[in-house]
Amino acid sequence: MWELVKAGGWLMLPIIACSIVAMTIVVERLWALRQNKVTPRHLLANVWRLERKRMLNAEQIAGIRAGSPLGRILAAGLANRHHAREIMKESIEESGRQVVHELERYLNTLGTIAAITPLLGLLGTVIGMIKVFTAITTAGVGDPTVLAGGISEALITTAAGLAVAIPSLMFYRYLQGKVDALVMRMEEEALKLVEVMHGEREAEYTETEA
Fold it and tell me: Fewest Cβ atoms nearer than 10 Å: which of 10, 42, 54, 67?
């Protein structure tokens, strides 16, 4: 393995660094974007039960806010539940934008790694080919060993760049899709909260969720 890194030249160092960063981001985001952590089941039903029992005080709302990203969004609406529907909805949207930004944390970095590692590999290819042609002009083409260093550097860096870029792109697309699905779920739950608190969905909600 070390021999391959040495044969690939100095451009292997940033490619390896990109692979480490990408792996760290993927593991961290897979852990952070678990559905039961972001959008816990029955959270909205529990909120509604607390509201019906007149137990939804500031302490309970603080606990809901600290429990999950969905809880933060619902808590923003609950804090303004006695105001007009528009004010409650605006507070939810403001909190939602912050939550979405946090869910997408590091994904831009992962996408950037997926984009630049093939370019790093291509740069290694160009540098390797320059070495090949320099060796040809200096020593001719009679001795293949003179050309081996440049050719190996060109091929190894290209392969390494693609080996990092392909899984990085796959995980970037997967995680972005997972964020989109979680955001849609949170939007649905927040809309239910607004409708329930303003008496627009009480009967239907209690039948399906309680």
Answer: 54
- For CA atoms 42, 45, 46, 47, give the dihedral sign: positive
**Number of residues written out for the chain:** 210
Contact 141, 120 (CB under 8 A): no
Q: How far apart are CA 18 and CA 111, in angstroms?
A: 11
Q: 91-95 — which CB contacts under 8 Å span 24+ positions?
A: 92/190, 92/193, 92/194
Q: What is the pLDDT of residues 183-197, one digit of tens each?
A: 999 998 888 888 777
Residue 203 has pLDDT above 80, yes or no: no
Shortest CA distance to 50 belongs to which of 88, 85, 16, 78? Answer: 78
Q: Rounded CA gap, 44 and 119, in Å?
A: 47
Dihedral angle at the C-alpha atoms of 128, 133, 138, 141, nearest 10 degrees? 100
Decide: residue 53, CB within 10 A, 0-12 exposed, 13-18 middle, 19+ buried: exposed
Domain count of the chain? 1
